[in-house]
Amino acid sequence: MTSFSADRSYAQTLDAADQLTHFRDRFVRPDWEDLIYLNGNSLGPLPIRTQARIAELIDQDWGVGLVRSWDKWLHQPRVAGDMLAEQLLGAASGQVIVCDSVTVNLYKLAWAALDFRPGRDVIVTDDDNFPTDRYVLAGVAAQRGCELRLIHTDMDEGISEESLVAALDDRVALVELSHVAYRSGALADMGQLTDLIHRAGALALWDLCHSVGAVPVELDGSGADLAIGCTYKYVNAGPGAPALLYVRDELQHQLRQPIWGWFGQRDQFEMGPRYDPAPGISAFLTGTPDIMGAVAVEEGARLLGEAGMQQLREKSVALTEYVIALADEWLAPLGFTVASPRRAARRGGHVTLRHDDARQLVQALLRTNIVTDYRTPDRVRISPAPLYTSFTHVWDGLDRLREIAASKSYADIPPEQPLVS
Amino acid sequence: MTSFSADRSYAQTLDAADQLTHFRDRFVRPDWEDLIYLNGNSLGPLPIRTQARIAELIDQDWGVGLVRSWDKWLHQPRVAGDMLAEQLLGAASGQVIVCDSVTVNLYKLAWAALDFRPGRDVIVTDDDNFPTDRYVLAGVAAQRGCELRLIHTDMDEGISEESLVAALDDRVALVELSHVAYRSGALADMGQLTDLIHRAGALALWDLCHSVGAVPVELDGSGADLAIGCTYKYVNAGPGAPALLYVRDELQHQLRQPIWGWFGQRDQFEMGPRYDPAPGISAFLTGTPDIMGAVAVEEGARLLGEAGMQQLREKSVALTEYVIALADEWLAPLGFTVASPRRAARRGGHVTLRHDDARQLVQALLRTNIVTDYRTPDRVRISPAPLYTSFTHVWDGLDRLREIAASKSYADIPPEQPLVS
Q1: Measured between beta carbons, which residues in chain B are less than 8 angstroms from residue A275?
Q2: Burial environment of residue B407 by CB neighbours within 10 A (0 to 12, 13 to 18, 19 or more)
Q3: Left, alpha or beta for A236 (phi > 0: left; psi -120 to 50: alpha)?
Q4: Number of CB pairs < 8 Å for A and B?
Q5: Alpha helices in B344-415, H assignment, sequence order
Q6: Is B31 a catalytic residue?
């Protein structure tokens, strides 16, 4: 490969060598050419096969099969979970299920973990974790009379081993951390941190929202106890698609989640007098699961698996390296700084840039059909997803950002415009 | 109207006078003629307009609009909730939201209700309530160190005023009851029972799963405090569509639900350090809501509203009266008994028949494309939904049931065949 150049032709050279470029055609995007989509870490695009599966589900399974299709649908949360486990999560089958939201799944698992470690009354997370993680855990801590201990974390570099160790003691029941930080993209060493957590006698719960489908995940290999994650980002399963929930095999019969619903019940349709949790991962279901969403999760995971997480990761690293190189070359003189780890091994699938006018810059890019996103307090988040983003997209997107920043053409946008996504 | 006759021509006469018959064409059912669907109380059919809205959502809003569509989607749980409130629930806007499952919503509201009545440590429900209701409340009671007090209920006639009163005292924080009983179809007097509950100083939480879209509901008028309900039965919103949640206006700022997620947060995208519940009904959201499902709920409620709940109820009563009349005429001599209230005013949208071989009878009907459902221990449940079921369907379905029962043509079906739906 030729060495870095800030010319557009270099992006074209990288694209020409890209083995994954044809996966772009697996998505429904009639106007890809008019759009530069660098926001797959918020909502991934629609795979063609997913569109067909959902249409089949609606038109045939629901429209014609009606209630008779539940024979098949009942298995869908497990089918989707096993597909995620095998293709993306490094987990043996029977440990992942697709249901509810990340928020609800975190609540269930945090509650169960506290029961599993009686006498321990501290939950640990980091103070820059995604809001729903911090909020849910604060709620569980309040309800259980526990302490929520927040690790102070570097907003750009992510959690350090030292700060985690300093937060651990024999009062800690559970540590919940994000594998990839939502703001900076900092990638935690799941195996190493899980070891530290286990040495303190606590359970390790990993939030995979920004890592599933973005970086290889090895749940079984890392010794992780529990995990949750969302499917509408890199898994491309659509707005509000149900979340994943992982419980390590050995723990499944020892943990009891608090929301006792009929889908978690053994012999569900016997409708017996008392709640008796189903064996295995199904005990972590609650109410009737979203079937359309679970079908989309299955297809999204299948597509990523077809490309291969190792190949995707290699391209993802090349893409984020390229974002950083162009940012250094073009954007640093315009007041931007790279607010993500510079070491690829410590970085997930997105890169974040700091700029005083980040909020307006993101809006100005959007006006020209370049989709990135703003994150508080002053960050532009850029996610070049390897399944459908080209190096030329990155070049064109950052070139536009450079123009906008240099010309201050965003000056007409109110700095406090309400945020929606 | 001519007086009842067991001839098929009588069904045809009733159909000819039916003002709602054209609503049947609003559903996607290429083979209605080959199918007698008496199971809308389990999964409703697919409305044509819902099929189109979901396709539009997927192809355009997701496929083309991508993350930019969140500007619109953010409102969808409220939009769907207000549509339900206005068309079906007798509730002013801003009190209903569509999210999560019935199970999760019941958990949230039961927990919040206990906090609202400190010093009270009893939850009351009935011993024949739908399993998820009993299980969720048993879980909440166990977690809160409360008592779950079960009212003994007549399986066929539903809850009595006397049995409710006997269960009430000044320890009761919350009473949760089903408006229409899932097994018998017994319809509770929401206003009267809510009054009794209020006199005891407790909150009244109504499960509307088998009543929303089946009978007129007057949440505001009855004084109900809280409600939950499912949308994939009579609201026809598809498998696993999200549930409804109602909190009476005055209570919204006084109740705090336990699952503190980012969609329940004020200024969600500011991602602040502490959970600060949004004003109004939005505080009862948790994680990212299922958007496809919420769109289907909106359309389902709109379609029912177009027919009008009073008109639907009139036809529904006529249909269930007809089921009972034919059952008395044909089926009683074959070992069936009516296991639903005979007074229309105390009966919801379905009729249940008792028979020793109910499980096999339902399977045998299914082999001939007549869909009913089995409920433990020995019940055939028949739901003639007024939006798409004709009197001739009822005649044909019960005629077949009569044939099957008389000939014992179900004898080859194993009595213990696993149940799925």
Answers
A1: 134-135, 138-139
A2: exposed
A3: left
A4: 263
A5: 358-367, 391-407
A6: no
Q: Minimal CA–CA distance to B205: which of B217, B187, B223?
A: B223
Of the candidates A42, A107, A242, the beta carbon closest to that of B67 is on A42
Q: What is the pLDDT of residues B251-310, one digit of tens each?
A: 999 999 999 999 999 999 888 999 999 999 999 999 999 999 999 999 999 999 999 999
Model confidence at A419: pLDDT above 60: no
Q: Are B114 and B257 in contact (CB under 8 A)?
A: no
Searching chain A, which residue's CA lies closest to the CA of residue B182?
A271
Question: Which residue matches tokens 């008496």?
Answer: B38
Q: Can you tell me whether residue B388 is helix, strand or coil? A: coil
ipTM: 0.97
Mean pLDDT of A243-262: 97
Q: Are B136 and B107 in contact (CB under 8 A)?
A: yes
Model pLDDT, residue B421: 46
Residues of chain A contacting B73 with CB distance shorter than 8 Å: 239-240
How far is Cα A397 from Cα A5, in angstroms, rounded to an integer? 16
Sheet holding A226-229, edge to edge: A96-99, A243-247, A226-229, A203-207, A172-178, A122-126, A147-151
* Domains of chain A listed by start with CATH number: 8-46+308-407 (3.90.1150.10), 51-306 (3.40.640.10)
A4: annotated active-site residue = no
For residue B248, the number of C-alpha atoms closer than 13 Å in the C-beta half-sphere is 16
φ/ψ of residue A27, rounded to 5: -110, 155
Asked if B259 lies within 8 A of A136 by C-beta distance, the reply is yes
Report which of A234, A136, A140 is spatially closest to residue A182, judged by C-alpha positions: A234
Q: Could you give the CA distance from residue B242 to residue A269 in angstroms, rounded to a whole number?
A: 21
